[in-house]
Task: structure prediction
Amino acid sequence: MKLYESTVYAQGRFLRYDEARVGLLTHGLNYGTGCFEGIRGYWNADERELNLVLLREHFERLHTSARILLMHVPHSVEELAEITVELCARNRYEENVYIRPLVYKNAEDVGVRLAGVDDAFAIATIPFKHYYDATAGLKACVSSWRRIDDTMAPARAKITGGYINAALAKSEAQMNGFDEAVMLSSDGHVAEGSAANLFLVKRGKLFTPDPTQNVLEGITRRAIISLAKDELGIEVVERALDRSELYAGDELFFTGTAAGVVFVNSVDHRPIADGRIGSVTRALRDLYERIVLGREPKYRAWLTPTYAGRRVTAA
Ligand code: PMP
Result:
């Protein structure tokens, strides 16, 4: 199926992608005044089921982002989950997908502001393969771009305009021959990757910047923290991290909805341990992958099935 033929949710109904238009002067496009989510659906071929991962948590974060930006999401978390399931079913996906809900200021005039401007809400979906080609791990560098500080724009909201920061860091890293950037906050502590949270293993403990370190509070981050504690019995410490702690780490990995759990083999040309995936990272990655594929009965509640018990309606 071509993208323009896919079904989206916009203007309060299901439309074809190319029927849902955004005008050139739209505030969200010109001023970055929008917030969004990235949600994954994993196709389980054995069960012929598309399972959506931690749907509720993503829509709760969307509501939080919108509240921070004086925007209104026209549906409750439950309604959003139902619409998303219906949308995936209408697209009849039998492959992994990425789901992109978006709230944005949709006035078409000039004058940057948030208050008193109408909002629009949409959800689009797209088939999705891999975010990184990461079997050998990622070569990371510390970016010359600092992570946007919460005193400049809300760090814990997933804001469209904020992604210029991520785009600058990611492209700088790639143009310099690295795979991914590690961004420091303006106070010099480690924040996160361009679109992923960062974890460090040292002497059997797991460390990650706490939520006051100008990071997006990742849904995958939270999932990995709970898996590390509950399933691996590892102590998890959330605190400010220094750049040189990364160089001295035993293992380093990124987490994100798109990224999954992906190990870092070097930072600024310094190999992390022997440059191969470490045992804690491997255990967490494998467990997370089994969970999202629906192979861990204990964690079925993290998944929302698309097709189970429903009649698939044509768009
Ligand atoms: N930080 C940033 C800046 C991101 O864009 C993302 C991706 N949403 C993450 C962290 C990881 O968050 P999540 O696990 O919710 O995808």
